[in-house]
What does this fold into?
Amino acid sequence: MLLLPTGYYLVGGALAVALSFPRLAFMRPAGLDPWRDFRLPLGAIPEPLRLLTSALSCAFLFMLIAAGLYGSPDPVHNPLPLTIWTLMWVGLTLVQGLLGNIWRWLDPWYAPCRAANTLLRRSEPAFDESRTSYLPALILFIAFAWFELVYIAPEDPPRLAVAVLSYWLVTFAFALMFGHDRWTRQGEFLTVFFNMIAKFGVVQPVSEGIRRIEFRLPGATVSEARPLPVSGVLFLLANLAAVSFDGFSKTFLWLGSIGINPLEFPGRSAVTVQNTLGLFGAMLALAALFAVAVRAGEALAGQRGRQSIGLLVWSIVPIALAYHFSHYLTALLVDAQAALIALSDPFAKGWNLLGLSGSHVEAGIVMGHNAAWAIWNAQAAAIVAGHILAVLIAHMFALRLYGDTRAAALSQLPLAVLMVAYTLLGLWLLSTPSAG
It folds into this structure.
């Protein structure tokens, strides 16, 4: 891991504090209109294309599963763990948050469900989004986070292949049972998460079901988001907490607190129980802190904001996306190379599908002086920019909830403190030594 220098940490923290509170005092409702209303038409995407891209995505996924079962047992040379943990969970998350809902076209269940419904001669059940519960997605995400961050061998190709295949089959069965739209939009955690963060991207559909797209400024689409139910709030906060705990669990502070010498890390099996408790504790702690911040803001404003928790939770996402980018940037630059090399020979048969077999990962892409300087600047800039967008979104929703500028500003003070603390935590995690 390429540690962020202390100077960047201090400057980033100071900027986060300096840019938070003045915006609360001077931002007026009309000041948000140019950001919220800017739209630039980009054309249309043929809806039948989704069937093709979904079918290709499904075929690609099953090829990866086969590679996990029958390819190289080395995670560094097998495309399954590199694609799942690097290209999908890191890379695609960033693309969703920056660009828009690419996952809608990569969904590996859409085409199989459409084919099954055609064979069974039945139509897709209607989905009422106003009655959505995200409890199934929350449970499945917690299991996924535990597998990724705590399980002793999440990168072992055969074990990961069995896990991915099992998850695809279970999701397919539930999608047939309840309907593809209903299950994937409230029960399948990847689709739920990707749909949520895609609202921050700059390419957005003009309306649901119509694939005309337009360019919007980052985060502007969130202004039209519905309040999340409690299960949705917990789901989103659990995602944010898991990413933060991923960084925190490798720090000397955490390892020392659980009696592990960080310079002689014994492996995941020695910290399974501690990390399990730590992961769940991080999720509960963030949920409690967020609820306290929102309720304290309501007390300062002198009124109860209707659906305030369900709306204001969207404001935490930009900080988490910025930390996701900064935390995984160096790993993405290195491991994405390894993924492409492995995909060139997925079954270790001597193939050269992409012309990259025999190539080597260029670690110098992140370790050179100029590269390191560029990465540090990108990390610090992303953290500060995410913080500014978070404050902007929080204030926008506060104005919607309370109507009055003064009440909105007062209501945001506790949440602004939480945002500054969350931003400082992200910067500290990037600058502190880590192990494991």
The mean pLDDT is 85.
